[in-house]
Amino acid sequence: MRILVYGLGALGSAFAGFLKKSGHEVFAVGRKRLIEPVKINGLKISGIWGEHKVEIKEVYENIEELPVKDFDLVILTVKSYDTERALEDLKGISFKYLLLAQNGYGNYEKAIAIFGREKVILSRVIFGAEIPSPGEVRITVIADDVVIGNPDGAIKEEELKTIASILNSAGIPTRYSPDVYKYLWDKILYNSALNPLGALLETNYGTLAKLPETRKTMDQIIDEIFAVCQAKGIELFHQSAEEYKKLFYEKLIPPTAEHFPSMYWDIKNGKRVEIDALNGAIVKLGREVGIPTPVNETITNLVKAKEILNIPKGR
User: Fold this and answer.
1) Helices 294-310 and 180-201 meet at what angle, rounded to 10?
2) What is the pLDDT of residues 61-79, one digit of tens each?
3) Rounded Cα distance, 108 and 103, in Å
4) 2-178 shares its CATH topology with 182-310
5) Tens digit of pLDDT for each residue in 167-221?
6) Crossing angle for the helix pair 279-289 and 212-232, nearest 10 degrees?
7) CATH level 3 topology of 182-310
8) Which of 54, 98, 240, 291 is 20 to 30 Å from 35 at the Cα level?
9) CB 74 within 8 A of CB 93
10) Rounded Cα distance, 210 and 212, in Å
């Protein structure tokens, strides 16, 4: 299979490395500082999925440099704030399917508006990866399989199961589910409650759950999300906010109690964050259906302010 990974960051490097290692024809587009070491020395993979060294020569800074323009599968791994720019770039090539391996709400909706429901595959990715240095990727944690699907039922199940099998065989645990949209929203719930508070207060998930003040704020974030989803007609796995909160505090947080959110590290390193695809998206959806979301709006504004204050001078 000929595959293009668009966005050779930590997640993109994991997909590109394992797919190339399993024998697929892999091309990648990424930032110069990340692709040059890969082109020269190959990609080093470490962490919970083993130690590997993979040669990937077909890495480029932009779509125009690609020697071929026709792909079986494109895997989009850019941050959500870069989705629109990436989708515009992808108009310059042809492909059978576009797999979105991204966080938050709105990426699928933007992609189908351009390429149509019959070409776009949604995923819920819940493994962690980081780049210790350019040319290296470390797989740090996995909570569940990657789940892929098409929320609109516009792609045959057999095709989706085949792609899931390809990823799984490459060493990336993956399965197909017709409920992929619910899985995505499960992650949005979890991330929206924990990530911004962890970033703002510079603390881990366990501390957020222990403090009455932050626990109350997380409860309010969750309550608003459930109200918006109900008004918007978005189906979730959980029947009520109270049902989800019980799972959240008793089952989901304890195994990750010591974890600091990636949003914390992004702000600490002067990078942009994906708040508009999480709490910011809840605010936007709430306005569409007339549901007030004051806590999510406050959290969004505070994160944006902290992001600005931490951007290095001169940028």
Assistant:
1) 60
2) 999 999 999 999 999 999 9
3) 10
4) no
5) 999 999 999 999 999 999 999 999 999 999 999 999 999 999 999 999 999 999 9
6) 40
7) N-(1-d-carboxylethyl)-l-norvaline Dehydrogenase; domain 2 (1.10.1040)
8) 98
9) yes
10) 6
The answer, as to whether pTM is greater than 0.90, is yes
* Per-residue pLDDT, 142: 86
CB within 8 A of 24, min separation 6: which ones? 1, 2, 3, 166, 170
Please report where in the chains the tokens 């508009």 appear, as a residue: 276
Residue from 295, 193, 200 nearest 253 by CA: 193
Residues marked active site are found at: 187
**Residues constituting the chain:** 315
Tell me the C-alpha to C-alpha distance, in Å, between residue 67 and each of 22, 24, 290.
22, 16, 49
CA distance 40 to 158: 38
DSSP string, 160-191: HHHHHHHHHHTTS-EEE-TTHHHHHHHHHHHH
**CA distances for 253 relative to 127, 216, 246, 258, 274, angstroms:** 16, 15, 11, 9, 21
How far the first Cα of the chain sits from its last, in Å, is 40
Domain positions in the chain = 2-178, 182-310
Please compute, for residue 177, the number of CA atoms within 13 A of its CA located in the half-sphere on the CB side.
Answer: 14
**β 127-130/136-142 pair status:** antiparallel
The CATH class of the 2-178 domain is alpha beta
CA-closest candidate to residue 235, choices 194, 177, 280, 184: 184
